[in-house]
């Protein structure tokens, strides 16, 4: 309850903020998209979202928290666009949120407020989010795509029925879970499975993004397999808006 009380205070004081991790074109290294990752600044460093998102969700604080952090993320990307730094923004959408009847309308309001096109946004959804009501989830995805949003299946390969999701839902992108990437360089079977997933995703016209790329050797293998985009500590860590803005200005 102590954490919950402090989280309420942080939300009321609007101190939570988004960090941004670049997602780069696998061949050119150009930053094409940034994933917003919430951070809670404390006197002694940052608290990881893994520690407070479950608390926020259980306490019913997630919708308010998401609104504040997304508003900042969208405003930051708006400002980057104004100076010609044209990156897409990727947002993690929790299962509960994706299920909520308010989700689409609230997102539309925030995106309009930031004067961004929905086509500049990627919504990252995990398998868990579409587990509940298949028909409702399918309809919501189609509605979002008709508005122009891109939809990614996040952490692909960690769930139980990943393959059936691929033919049941109209994803645009597939984010390959970092557990596959971690095994690439020393596990022949993992390498074959990864190559097959990428080939299958391409058959379905999905853009493939590999997560958790930590080594040059992993990047080289993913490039050889035709992986479209990569993300991970080998490329860039999650950065503050200011640090990433400086980096992108420097790189262009
Ligand atoms: O940011 P990493 O630094 O620790 O994030 C840990 C987990 O929290 C990841 O699974 C990520 O998808 C999730 N996460 C990070 N930021 C957000 C957010 O703003 N909203 C939601 N729903 N999940 C987030
Ligand atoms: O679940 P999701 O894929 O949204 O998780 C994003 C999380 O992955 C964030 O916590 C982010 O900090 C973390 N992350 C990003 N790049 C790497 C990496 O190269 N290695 C590891 N171990 N984690 C990473
Ligand atoms: Mn993600
Ligand atoms: Na992921």
UniProtKB/TrEMBL annotation:
It comes from the Bacteria. Keywords: Membrane, Transmembrane, Transmembrane helix. Residues 1-252 form the EAL domain. The keyword Hydrolase does not apply. This is EAL domain-containing protein.
């Amino acid at each position: 309850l102590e954490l919950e009380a402090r989280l309420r205070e942080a939300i009321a004081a609007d101190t939570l903020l988004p960090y941004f991790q670049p997602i780069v074109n696998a061949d050119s290294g150009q930053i094409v998209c940034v994933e917003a990752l919430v951070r809670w600044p404390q006197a002694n460093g940052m608290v990881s979202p893994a520690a407070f998102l479950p608390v926020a969700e259980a306490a019913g604080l997630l919708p308010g928290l998401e609104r504040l952090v997304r508003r900042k993320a969208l405003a930051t990307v708006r400002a980057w666009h104004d100076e010609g730094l044209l990156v897409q923004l990727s947002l993690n959408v929790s299962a509960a949120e994706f299920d909520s009847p308010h989700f689409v309308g609230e997102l539309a309001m925030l995106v309009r407020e930031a004067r961004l096109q929905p086509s500049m946004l990627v919504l990252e959804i995990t398998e868990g989010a579409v587990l509940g009501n298949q028909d409702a989830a399918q309809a919501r995805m189609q509605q979002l795509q008709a508005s122009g949003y891109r939809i990614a299946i996040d952490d692909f390969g960690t769930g139980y029925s990943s393959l059936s999701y691929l033919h049941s839902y109209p994803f645009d992108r597939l984010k390959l879970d970092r557990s596959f990437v971690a095994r690439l360089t020393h596990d022949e079977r993992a390498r074959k499975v990864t190559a097959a997933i990428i080939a299958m995703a391409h058959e379905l016209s999905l853009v493939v993004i590999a997560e958790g790329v930590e080594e040059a050797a992993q990047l080289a293998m993913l490039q050889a397999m035709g992986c479209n985009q990569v993300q991970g500590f080998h490329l860039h860590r999650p950065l503050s808006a200011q640090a990433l803005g400086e980096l992108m200005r420097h790189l262009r």
